[in-house]
Structure formats: C-alpha cells, structure tokens
C-alpha cells in the first residue's frame, strides 16, 4: 500500500525526473571544469540537451506502447503521467538554452550563428516546447477544449527539429539516430494501427 502511494505521488515522479539534473547543478555551483578545461556551462550543454530529447521521446512513445499492450498496467500508468515527461523535457530544454546563452556570452554572438542549420532547428524546437509546456495542465485542457490536442501535436514538429539540431549542431548522426529511430518506428506502428482500424486515437 505504501509503495503504491509513493509510486502514484507527484513528488515521486518530479523527483525521478529531477535526478539527472542534480549532478549538473552541483557542477555549476562548484564551478567544475572538464578534463580538457571547459567550464560547466559548456560541457553540460550536451547532457542537458540529451535529457530534454530523452524525456520528449519517452512522452511520445507512451501512446504506441499503450496501443501495442492495451492491458498492460505499466503503460496505463505511464499514459496518466505522460504530461510530466513532456514538462520534464521542456525543463531540461530550458536548462540547455540558458547554458547556451551563458556560454555564448552576448546577444551578438547568439545572433551571429542563429542561421546555422544546427542552431535554428534547436531554437525552433524550444519555441514549440514553450506553449506546449505552458498548456500541459488540466486548467488549460478545459480552457482550450478541442484546440488542446492539435496544439500538443506540434510536438511531432518539435521532435523533428530536435533530431536535426542534434545531428547537425556537431555533425554527429549516430547518437541522435539511436534515440529517434525507435521513436519513428513506434509512431509508424501507431499510425498504421489507427488508420488501419479506423480508430481516431490510441487508448488514453
């Protein structure tokens, strides 16, 4: 009973999502420097971006897995907490963005590389994340009504922009594809099931 109460607690889930950020915050607070002499504001850029992408992917694969395993209790539990992972993704994306701005040092430096393909795709993903995160609450669901789901579907565009940002910001395709190819396969499965069965949505 206690285990179930803890598992269903919002505090437990927020703590779980926050755990990866703890060593990052400590590194910043202690002025940590990497072995090659980079400050924390620089060497934490990659892990903050990775966790933003990972939590976004987790939030997006829940529906396909729920469709694949409709009687599985774990995926039912995940469906009910999907928004937490989306907000977690935004929090790490915001962390990533703040570190980037600090590392660049000035607005002129930021604008100077804004049009680079690997940069503006990252900004596009972040700007899409903002309204999605702000409306990820019950009050917004009620207020927006039938417009809420179409707004949240912009997450697919954010996912594509995130993939391109990850691949082209350092011209490293492998790690990004390892994360996003499973998502693409699962979404393909979900779409084929939805349209194949004539259903309008995955179980929620």
UniProtKB/TrEMBL annotation:
Keyword vocabulary terms for this entry: Iron, Membrane, Transmembrane, Transmembrane helix, Transport
InterPro entries found in the cross-reference section: Fe3_Rdtase_TM_dom, MsrQ-like
Protein name: Flavocytochrome YedZ
Top-rank lineage group of the source organism: Bacteria
A GO molecular-function descriptor: oxidoreductase activity, acting on diphenols and related substances as donors
One annotated Gene Ontology cellular component of this protein: plasma membrane
Predominant cellular place of this UniProt entry's protein: membrane
Domain Ferric oxidoreductase: 49-162
A Pfam entry, by short name: Ferric_reduct
Transmembrane intervals: 12-31, 51-69, 84-102, 114-134, 154-170
Keyword GTP-binding: no
Subcellular compartments: Membrane
Designated gene of the protein: yedZ
Signal peptide: none
Protein's membrane topology: Multi-pass membrane protein
